[in-house]
Design the sequence.
């Protein structure tokens, strides 16, 4: 029975992974209270005591704008900690699954990004994640880096939940329409991760464990933040969630009309050909997961149902 160490269990992806990971595995899940990623000694001790076959690093500093004024904390979690995790995983010959981001790119490429494209992050968050990716590779151990974009879920803080809250409060929304990408639900990421892990475990049993490196993971299709918001609100209305805003009052705007401390890439579309070719993983159209997340949000809580 494989032992899986999951770091970041309370994040969007971490929560989803606890449901999606193989039931035949022993999953040791930690949050920041039981494994402090800002303490290298504590982190090393946790990994060594766990003796994992697989380490999944779903922990990250994701406050993109705040990172501009707090880069030290951002780099500690996103760059320094992955270096320690990768070193310890190599020492144990454990597979490390690590998550990267579209923000390692500057978004100026007119077509989808492939894994070999040169990174050029525009903000501190992107630079910290790139440094973490590089540290994982440099450690020389067995690793899979899954680069994802526009992550959302029914839990935690994310664009989808913010938009649905604002749409219930306001009669007009102004949403950026000149930044493009593919919304990816945490459940999709977790399910794909579980599938990838099982494939790698099986291939290693057959003596063919050659999967190592960076893979882009994203659903099919492309949209803008405006398109994403419009779809969320439309689906929410279909499921009876009360909205103040009407779809014709979701106003498209340019990114320059909504300045933020951290600059975002204009193009965050990821080419997933390599993942499909080498690991046989392909996600459906992004709209399918929107529907699933909205259904989960619309489901009455126990308190509401009582």
Sequence:
């Amino acid at each position: 029975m494989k032992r899986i160490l999951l770091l970041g269990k309370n994040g969007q992806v971490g929560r989803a992974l606890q449901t999606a990971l193989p039931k035949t595995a022993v999953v040791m899940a930690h949050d920041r209270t039981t494994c402090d990623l800002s303490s290298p000694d504590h982190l090393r001790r946790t990994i060594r005591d766990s003796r994992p076959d697989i380490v999944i690093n779903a922990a990250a500093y994701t406050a993109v704008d705040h990172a501009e004024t707090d880069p030290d904390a951002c780099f500690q979690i996103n760059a320094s900690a992955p270096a320690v995790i990768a070193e310890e995983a190599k020492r144990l010959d454990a597979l490390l699954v690590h998550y990267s981001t579209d923000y390692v790119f500057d978004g100026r490429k007119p077509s989808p990004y492939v894994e070999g494209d040169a990174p050029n992050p525009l903000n501190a968050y992107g630079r910290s994640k790139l440094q973490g990716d590089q540290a994982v590779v440099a450690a020389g151990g067995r690793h899979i880096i899954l680069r994802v974009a526009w992550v959302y879920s029914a839990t935690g803080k994310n664009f989808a939940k913010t938009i649905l809250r604002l749409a219930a409060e306001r009669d007009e929304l102004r949403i950026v329409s000149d930044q493009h990408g593919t919304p990816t639900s945490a459940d999709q990421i977790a399910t794909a991760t579980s599938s990838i892990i099982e494939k790698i475990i099986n291939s290693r049993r057959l003596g063919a464990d050659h999967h190592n490196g960076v893979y882009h993971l994203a659903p099919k299709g492309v949209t803008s933040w405006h398109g994403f918001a419009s779809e969320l609100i439309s689906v929410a209305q279909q499921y009876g969630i009360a909205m103040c805003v009407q779809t014709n009052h979701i106003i498209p705007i340019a990114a320059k009309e909504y300045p933020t401390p951290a600059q975002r890439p204009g193009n965050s579309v990821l080419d997933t050909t390599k993942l499909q070719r080498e690991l046989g993983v392909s996600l459906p159209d992004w709209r399918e997961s929107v529907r699933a997340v909205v259904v989960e949000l619309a489901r009455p809580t126990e308190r509401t149902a009582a």
Q: What stands out?
A: The chain has ten helices and twelve strands. The radius of gyration is 19 Å.
